[in-house]
Here is the input.
Amino acid sequence: IKNNEGHILLQHRDGNAPTNPNVWGLWGGEIDPGETSVQAAIRELKEELDITVEASQLHFFKKQVDENWEADVFLLKDEGGFVYHLQEGDDLKFFAPEELMDVKTDSRAHAILEDYLKASQSF
Here is the structure.
């Protein structure tokens, strides 16, 4: 999620997170049976931030693949219309692009953010 200032919203995972506790990460989760990746992204954003997103607002960025995991990564631009209510994790914060590589994130989020910073940010 990118705001009008170009900052990226991250979630701080609490100590009880089943994976990657106590680090900053991206929003997301698993695809439920019968869901598309877009439907899962919309559901996860509702579950984690209590925001309602339309499919047309999500922009496919890349497919992230590593040894035992793959994810479709979408970009969402917040033009000031969202009010976030954190439902998972213990904090959320917008980070400026120049801060992102210095934030303690899990390795998957780090790789995605690194690719995002290298890519055209015309979105």
The longest strand covers residues 69-78. Residues 37-49 form the longest helix (13 residues). The chain is about 20% helix and 25% strand.
